[in-house]
Design goal:
The structure holds two protein chains of two kinds.
Chain A: E1 12-13, E2 19-21, H1 25-48, H2 62-88, H3 94-125, H4 134-153, H5 159-173, H6 176-186, H7 207-265
Antiparallel strand pairs in A: 1-2
Helix pairs in contact in A: 1-7, 2-3, 2-5, 2-7, 3-4, 3-5, 3-7, 4-5, 4-6
Chain B: H1 16-49, E1 54-55, E2 71-77, E3 83-85, E4 88-95, E5 98-105, E6 117-125, E7 128-136, H2 148-156
Parallel strand pairs in B: 1-2, 5-7
Antiparallel strand pairs in B: 2-4, 2-6, 3-4, 4-5, 6-7
The chains are: A mainly alpha, B alpha+beta.
Amino acid sequence: MTTTDSNPASVEVDPSGRFAGTGTRGTRILGSMTVVAMVWLVAFGLGFSPADRDQDEAVRIMYVHVPTIWVAYMSFVVTAVASGFYLFGRSKALGWDRLAGASAEIGTIFVAATLVVGSLWGRLTWGVFWQWDARLTTTALLFVTYIGYLAVRRLGGSHQQRARRSAVVGLLAVLLIPLVHWSVRLWRSLHQEATVLDTDGDIDMDGLMLFSLFVGVVAFTLFYIWLVLHRTRVMAMEDMMDDRGLDLALASRRAEVVPTQKLEEN
Amino acid sequence: MSEMNLTPRGPAEPTASGGKSKRNWLSIAVLALVLVAGGVIVTQFLTSAVDYYCNVDEVGVRDGCDADRRIRLQGTVDEGSVEKVGNATVFTMSFNDETIGVSYDGEPGGIFKECIPVVVHGVIEQGTLQGDRVEVKHSDEYVSVNDERVTEAEAAGCTSTT
């Protein structure tokens, strides 16, 4: 008995019928593109882009710090959208739930990277690793909230129960993103205001620095997509393993009936 | 035909289900930690993050910016004001045409220099802010070190309203 639609169509199967991995031609091309984009990022981030007037070489941390948080925002939005499709869609397809979960996992890792890299940048520019200002505090809250989301996903129950409860949390947690982004406008903060995603439309950034930042966003976005594709497929396999475990347990329980029946007949 | 025996079994052997149960407890423990961490963060937010600093011109004027209590004060380091007096770094900082003297015991870290906004933590004694921490609040502008605008900005001096 299988209770879910856990057949991952995109998972490769070798001729003997066993899973050969989560890679496909598409993900291999995407992986190659990610490597090329990362090499570009290293070249522009460490080589071609200039040092900053005030921050000197420390500005290069921006090419990791900013793209990772933008991609984290995007991944949490993907989690919320996929959660919405699961919760309000007719099919209740678990594929949406797995996409939501995979995206949240990777987004959480990216927020952690933002916090770590940001604290190093803070030490070099502000003079301190951490301060409880509005931006840092709300970002920490975002991180902890999605750790909570991931814990909720592992509370047990059926796949559908997992999907339902985590979809609700996924839809609520995404509301923190505007708070994080606008925290530097809403309150006085040690963290500087947004330079690119600003409302005044005036980007106060050197052209080559801006291009390097763009390369960073492209590289980390490709990396995110590659990771999500693989993680979603691994999750599909995990669900399938769970279902097979249930099927095997039921089959073994049924098998116990047969000897009992024979004994009664004798 | 006899039906399946659905009576409860004896104590189960430690199998995959045992592992799952452990995983559930771990998840509950993580959730509890998340709630505690969330509480700490919200507390920090309410006590520290909201309005992280007062501006120099708000001392004794704005609510929460009283001169007789510990304060975080923001202003721009005045041009030509930075001096070393013994181990201390002494300078003045300004905001909206109001200026205050600062004495910090040590060398400020980060990218501290003249004409840059800073947040100084400390207490005001006899009109001077005795700082025990200096944080540099750099702007949202990113200018190449080779940019022509650098020399223009340097020629123009620094403003006190950033």
